[in-house]
Amino acid sequence: MGPPTALTQEEEELLVRWICACANKGFPLNKRLLCETVKDLIESDNRPNPFKDGLPGFKWFNAFLKRHPELSQRHAESINTARACVSENSIRQWHEDIRKYLINENAVDILEDPTRIFNSDESGFATNPKTGLVLGPKGLKNFYEIKSGSEKECITALFTISADGQIYPQ
Protein backbone atom coordinates (compact mmCIF):
# COMPACT_ATOMS: atom_id res chain seq x y z
CA MET A 1 0.00 0.00 0.00
CA GLY A 2 1.10 3.54 -0.67
CA PRO A 3 4.00 4.88 -2.72
CA PRO A 4 7.25 2.93 -3.01
CA THR A 5 9.85 3.48 -0.31
CA ALA A 6 12.75 5.84 -0.99
CA LEU A 7 15.26 3.08 -0.28
CA THR A 8 15.28 -0.54 -1.37
CA GLN A 9 14.46 -3.27 1.12
CA GLU A 10 18.14 -4.29 1.10
CA GLU A 11 19.24 -0.72 1.86
CA GLU A 12 16.77 -0.47 4.72
CA GLU A 13 17.96 -3.81 6.14
CA LEU A 14 21.53 -2.54 5.96
CA LEU A 15 20.47 0.61 7.83
CA VAL A 16 18.75 -1.50 10.51
CA ARG A 17 21.91 -3.59 10.99
CA TRP A 18 23.98 -0.39 11.21
CA ILE A 19 21.59 1.15 13.76
CA CYS A 20 21.71 -2.01 15.92
CA ALA A 21 25.51 -2.30 15.68
CA CYS A 22 25.97 1.35 16.70
CA ALA A 23 23.57 0.98 19.65
CA ASN A 24 25.26 -2.23 20.82
CA LYS A 25 28.62 -0.43 20.85
CA GLY A 26 27.31 2.51 22.88
CA PHE A 27 26.84 4.96 20.03
CA PRO A 28 23.10 4.94 19.27
CA LEU A 29 21.83 7.08 16.40
CA ASN A 30 19.20 9.74 16.72
CA LYS A 31 16.47 10.57 14.20
CA ARG A 32 18.41 13.49 12.70
CA LEU A 33 21.51 11.40 11.95
CA LEU A 34 19.42 8.60 10.41
CA CYS A 35 17.55 11.04 8.17
CA GLU A 36 20.79 12.75 7.10
CA THR A 37 22.27 9.34 6.29
CA VAL A 38 19.24 8.47 4.13
CA LYS A 39 19.60 11.80 2.32
CA ASP A 40 23.32 11.11 1.71
CA LEU A 41 22.55 7.60 0.41
CA ILE A 42 20.03 8.92 -2.11
CA GLU A 43 22.28 11.79 -3.21
CA SER A 44 25.38 9.60 -3.55
CA ASP A 45 23.44 7.29 -5.88
CA ASN A 46 22.14 10.25 -7.98
CA ARG A 47 18.56 9.10 -7.51
CA PRO A 48 15.60 11.48 -7.48
CA ASN A 49 15.07 12.65 -3.92
CA PRO A 50 11.36 12.41 -3.01
CA PHE A 51 11.69 14.36 0.25
CA LYS A 52 10.92 18.00 0.91
CA ASP A 53 14.25 19.84 1.15
CA GLY A 54 15.89 16.48 0.39
CA LEU A 55 15.61 15.28 4.00
CA PRO A 56 13.22 12.54 5.19
CA GLY A 57 10.68 13.89 7.63
CA PHE A 58 8.40 12.77 10.44
CA LYS A 59 6.16 10.61 8.21
CA TRP A 60 9.07 8.74 6.63
CA PHE A 61 10.70 8.17 10.02
CA ASN A 62 7.53 6.77 11.59
CA ALA A 63 6.88 4.56 8.56
CA PHE A 64 10.49 3.30 8.76
CA LEU A 65 10.00 2.33 12.41
CA LYS A 66 6.71 0.57 11.51
CA ARG A 67 8.47 -1.37 8.74
CA HIS A 68 11.18 -2.39 11.21
CA PRO A 69 9.50 -3.33 14.51
CA GLU A 70 12.81 -4.70 15.79
CA LEU A 71 13.85 -1.05 16.36
CA SER A 72 12.64 1.28 19.07
CA GLN A 73 13.23 4.88 19.98
CA ARG A 74 13.96 5.76 23.60
CA HIS A 75 16.26 7.68 25.93
CA ALA A 76 19.75 6.26 26.48
CA GLU A 77 21.57 6.32 29.79
CA SER A 78 24.80 8.31 29.53
CA ILE A 79 27.96 6.64 30.82
CA ASN A 80 31.59 7.61 30.46
CA THR A 81 34.15 5.74 28.39
CA ALA A 82 35.95 4.17 31.37
CA ARG A 83 32.74 2.62 32.67
CA ALA A 84 31.78 1.37 29.21
CA CYS A 85 35.05 -0.62 29.03
CA VAL A 86 34.10 -2.83 32.01
CA SER A 87 33.19 -6.34 30.90
CA GLU A 88 32.12 -9.54 32.61
CA ASN A 89 35.59 -10.98 31.99
CA SER A 90 37.32 -8.01 33.63
CA ILE A 91 35.06 -8.31 36.70
CA ARG A 92 35.71 -12.08 36.94
CA GLN A 93 39.46 -11.41 36.64
CA TRP A 94 39.27 -8.80 39.41
CA HIS A 95 37.57 -11.35 41.72
CA GLU A 96 40.20 -13.97 40.88
CA ASP A 97 42.98 -11.46 41.61
CA ILE A 98 41.42 -10.66 45.01
CA ARG A 99 41.14 -14.39 45.83
CA LYS A 100 44.82 -14.90 44.92
CA TYR A 101 45.82 -11.90 47.03
CA LEU A 102 43.88 -13.20 50.06
CA ILE A 103 45.43 -16.66 49.65
CA ASN A 104 48.87 -15.07 49.44
CA GLU A 105 48.18 -13.04 52.61
CA ASN A 106 46.79 -16.14 54.39
CA ALA A 107 43.44 -14.35 54.79
CA VAL A 108 41.18 -16.36 52.47
CA ASP A 109 38.93 -17.14 55.49
CA ILE A 110 37.47 -13.65 54.98
CA LEU A 111 35.53 -15.03 52.01
CA GLU A 112 33.79 -17.56 54.30
CA ASP A 113 32.43 -14.92 56.72
CA PRO A 114 29.54 -12.84 55.28
CA THR A 115 29.98 -10.17 57.98
CA ARG A 116 33.43 -9.44 56.50
CA ILE A 117 32.37 -9.14 52.84
CA PHE A 118 31.11 -5.73 51.76
CA ASN A 119 29.80 -4.11 48.64
CA SER A 120 29.55 -0.38 48.23
CA ASP A 121 27.62 1.18 45.42
CA GLU A 122 27.44 4.76 44.39
CA SER A 123 24.35 6.07 42.64
CA GLY A 124 24.20 9.41 40.95
CA PHE A 125 20.89 11.18 40.51
CA ALA A 126 21.20 13.58 37.61
CA THR A 127 19.81 17.06 38.02
CA ASN A 128 19.49 17.20 34.22
CA PRO A 129 19.11 13.54 33.18
CA LYS A 130 17.57 13.74 29.71
CA THR A 131 19.37 12.74 26.58
CA GLY A 132 17.66 12.96 23.23
CA LEU A 133 15.76 10.03 21.82
CA VAL A 134 18.00 7.51 20.08
CA LEU A 135 17.42 4.37 18.03
CA GLY A 136 18.37 0.80 18.84
CA PRO A 137 17.12 -2.76 18.83
CA LYS A 138 14.05 -3.62 20.89
CA GLY A 139 14.89 -5.63 23.97
CA LEU A 140 18.45 -4.30 24.35
CA LYS A 141 18.81 -4.29 28.15
CA ASN A 142 21.64 -1.84 28.58
CA PHE A 143 20.93 1.07 26.31
CA TYR A 144 23.82 3.47 26.80
CA GLU A 145 25.17 6.48 25.03
CA ILE A 146 28.87 6.90 25.76
CA LYS A 147 29.79 10.51 26.43
CA SER A 148 33.17 12.02 27.10
CA GLY A 149 33.68 14.11 30.20
CA SER A 150 31.13 15.20 32.76
CA GLU A 151 28.27 16.90 30.98
CA LYS A 152 25.82 17.14 33.84
CA GLU A 153 25.58 17.75 37.55
CA CYS A 154 24.28 15.10 39.88
CA ILE A 155 23.64 14.31 43.52
CA THR A 156 25.50 11.21 44.66
CA ALA A 157 24.51 8.63 47.29
CA LEU A 158 26.84 5.88 48.55
CA PHE A 159 25.53 2.67 50.13
CA THR A 160 27.51 -0.10 51.84
CA ILE A 161 25.96 -3.49 52.56
CA SER A 162 27.61 -6.63 53.94
CA ALA A 163 27.01 -10.10 52.52
CA ASP A 164 24.85 -10.93 55.56
CA GLY A 165 22.48 -8.08 54.63
CA GLN A 166 23.54 -5.39 57.10
CA ILE A 167 23.30 -1.82 55.77
CA TYR A 168 26.00 0.45 57.09
CA PRO A 169 25.64 4.21 57.69
CA GLN A 170 27.84 6.56 55.71
Automatic annotation (TrEMBL):
<dbReference type="InterPro" id="IPR006600">
    <property type="entry name" value="HTH_CenpB_DNA-bd_dom"/>
</dbReference>
<keyword id="KW-0238">DNA-binding</keyword>
<dbReference type="GO" id="GO:0005634">
    <property type="term" value="C:nucleus"/>
</dbReference>
<dbReference type="Pfam" id="PF03221">
    <property type="entry name" value="HTH_Tnp_Tc5"/>
</dbReference>
<dbReference type="GO" id="GO:0003677">
    <property type="term" value="F:DNA binding"/>
</dbReference>
<feature type="domain" description="HTH CENPB-type">
    <location>
        <begin position="1"/>
        <end position="74"/>
    </location>
</feature>
<protein>
    <recommendedName>
        <fullName>HTH CENPB-type domain-containing protein</fullName>
    </recommendedName>
</protein>
<dbReference type="InterPro" id="IPR050863">
    <property type="entry name" value="CenT-Element_Derived"/>
</dbReference>
